[in-house]
User: Fold this.
Amino acid sequence: MTGHGDAETFREAIIGASLVLGQAYGEDGVTMRAIASKLGTSATTLYTCFESKAAIMRELRLRGVMSIGKSMLDALEVPDARECFLELSRRYVAFARENRWLYTVLFVEETPVTEIVTPAQAEVLAGLEVAVTKRFSERYFDMTRHHPTNPHRTVVRWWMSVHGLASLIITRRIKADHRYLPVGDIDQFVEESILGVIDVLMAKLD
Assistant:
């Protein structure tokens, strides 16, 4: 790895391999040796890009939050205001269902991402939070003709609902064939739940 382009390519390969290992085996499976084996190189070579496994995990967390944040911002541009919040919620739950391990690392584990990332990464996340909150508040006004009294609390109320739904599904507390509380078709259940979340959001309970 001599050129800048080669180093960036290798760095991306490390992140990609780490994500694959994490999704398959959990965080315990994300080791320097396992990553190196997957890439066909030596563990020592990985240290040219990342100082430790912890640094790789921090980068994975940052990438994960930025990915879901970009998806949220894209959804918030859907022209119809109510539909944009429905799409926002659908995308959020879909991210969790499609990336169970990563979502757990980001939003279910005991230690919040903001307490693990570096100061530089925290700055990036802060910028994302500002952008999402601002656009969320603007579209909230478009939908309700009401400015949220506390924009952050309004975002948190929405997040609390969709995060709860996503978390219960990926931990199998909500299942189509749950022994005691079967919900039937999961996709239909998600859509009905999201419709309920947006109905509450439209009630301007802030």
DSSP finds nine helices and no strands in the chain. The chain has two domains: 1-50, 62-202. The chain has a mean pLDDT of 93.
